[in-house]
C-alpha cells in the first residue's frame, strides 16, 4: 500500500488546497482507482482482518 500512498501523496502541497487545479485532482483520483484495481487482491486480504478498510485518498 506504500506504492498507492506514494503515488497519491503530493510532494509540494499548495498553500491553499482549494486552488488545486481540477485536472490534477482528476488525474490523482484516476491513479487511485488504477492502483486500487491493480492491488484488489491485496486489499481483499487486508479486509479479511479489517472489514471495510480502504486505502485513503489524499
From TrEMBL:
Taxonomy, superkingdom: Bacteria
UniProt name for this protein: Uncharacterized protein
Species for this entry: Mucilaginibacter frigoritolerans
